[in-house]
Amino acid sequence: xxxxxxxxxxxxxxxxxxxxxxxxxxxxxxxxxxxxxxxxxxxxxxxxxxxxxxxxxxxxxxxxxxxxxxxxxxxxxxxxxxxxxxxxxxxxxxxxxxxxxxxxxxxxxxxxxxxxxxxxxxxxxxxxxxxxxxxxxxxxxxxxxxxxxxxxxxxxxxxxxxxxxxxxxxxxxxxxxxxxxxxxxxxxxxxxxxxxxxxxxxxxxxxxxxxxxxxxxxxxxxxxxxxxxxxxxxxxxxxxxxxxxxxxxxxxxxxxxxxxxxxxxxxxxxxxxxxxxxxxxxxxxxxxxxxxxxxxxxxxxxxxxxxxxxxxxxxxxxxxxxxxxxxxxxxxxxxxxxxxxxxxxxxxxxxxxxxxxxxxxxx
Length: 363
Hints:
alpha/beta; single chain; Rossmann fold; 57% helix; 16 helices
């Protein structure tokens, strides 16, 4: 964002007299550059974009309209203000110039003082616009950071309840990312798995088990097999998670970033054949993000040490997920997992909690 006194103005005109008049009028207030044809102007602008362009229309070779069109077609130069300065005074000519994206249209013969005033006005507008964009970028960065901190803080609550799963959050985030990236070109998923959606999925993944904060310690940390009644209470963690996230989501609105986290928390224990919980959803009734998290969550539970079980070898975990294709898991997600199984092993090994897990994963 330039200070007005240090802004660069490029004059593009094939008539030396016009250039001399403009240099006399603007030279004391701005840093001026000159080009006498369209091709030379485009080359100079590409090398060092100015803050504003005064552009003639009738020039030999490439006319000003084409210069403007090319500049507006390129991200690096599309936001440079262009002021047409021309002898073409018909309304149709002016409409065409403004339609191409020019910010102003001045006809010859022109008043140097008028040109100077309009140039200054356009540079002031650009300065304020650039400042506003900087503010928006900073505000967006702060919002993203707030989202990340909120989710990580909430996810840590569940982690504190079960100290043996410290790496579980990190691992499942990595798992769902590579699954989603692998599937985003699949015809069934490409509309859902946009880059933005994948980032929300990865960001929300730590909250899939947030509901476990509502499960009693004697059940959550029980070293042996759960009774039927205890398992029924354990199953409620999906409902607790949904309700906890929903309470926050209502304050943020329907389009809150937490909607993905709620979807995952509530649906990641559903099974493809309808035998899962809490709703007994079947097949594609299960939200896609819940289907992705189901594979990531089960793989990680299998290869990890828990109070109720030792870690299983990677190959055993892969075989068990393969066996669940079409019953427990979405077949397409399992196929992606099988393609990526070596990547899953690598992620698990790099983020293992216990030496026992590392040994099995290294075999």
